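#lab-general

N.A. 3:47 PM
ok so I finally got the sequence cleaned up, no stray characters, all 356 residues accounted for. can someone with queue access submit it? mine expired

B.Y. 3:52 PM
send it over

N.A. 3:53 PM
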Amino acid sequence: METLRFGTRPRLGCATFPFCHSFASANSVPVPNVPFGTQGRETSSPLVRYAKLLKNMIKIEEISPPSYYSHYNKITYFNLNEKRTLWKTFTKCFYCQKNNRISNPSLFKQNAHAVSSYFNSNLYNYDECDECNKLFANKLETKFSLFFDPIKSFLFQNHKFKQQENFYYNKNGDVIIHPNFIKSIDQKNRIAHITIKRPAISILDIYCCLLKMGLSVFNRIQRKEVSKSLNLIALDFNYQNKLRHLNHFFLYGIYNENSTEDSIAIYKNTSKLNLPKYFIFIKHHRFYFQLFIPFINDDATFNILPPMTRIIGSETNFNSANFVSNFIEKGEINLALKATDKEKFENYIIKNNFKK
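B.Y. 4:20 PM
back already:
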């Protein structure tokens, strides 16, 4: 069995390649654009019950970003590419508050990423026990990989997407693809049609994964302020249910086509206006993720618009609001790549018995 190598060097913009043209665009990332009226909820319930649900939801508006975000100051910032271990003076696990490095050293053997390695992060938590690290990795990050990685793995060098024993990745500009991902091949035009199976994904899981990253860089002295959020990411059913009723959301889209920045920041409302106290902002190359920290002042006014008002250097105005009450149904992600090396392509066809 031979893997297929497409000679490619990713170009910034719409997930296309100058020499290996992908028909995938940023809009093909499996993220639903949710209508703001019912926000993805069923409308078949009795009117009284539905009115109560609406009353319990957070207040969401479209507010001019310069006006809204001028009330926030950046209080935390980390460059994810710089190797660093945080919170070395804290020995008790920040998340479960159960395990301690001094009394349970065997439960702190792993290097726990503060921010997921999917964002090329070299930021680590000293105060995250192995049990919590395993929980977040198995229950949250695996879902996040299916939400974001299938497209990302074609775009960024040396980033691998793996599904069971199948994989593909961009190795220094060449996309290497396991044959099991290939649905069909247009041999005349040297185009491979790729299909990735995707299970159903809860937006709540993606939200919790992003929230965990933000809480990882949150001031440990102020743990009490985010204790409910910590219960949420520990998969507490009551807090999950409450968040769905509130119908929190995260924003996701293209920040800057020309950016190579990997960073995480927390912003705080410094005004007397009733705005969410904190929001998290993650940059990963061209992409951004933003969410407000929940359960602190949910009666505030939440802005559905991200901080930036203009997509720099992009032909695609791609921004998406993702509500925790929604699900992405199971299905397939379909992509296509064109090989640029005729000899390698023909060798691949022969070795893997892709006959005409």
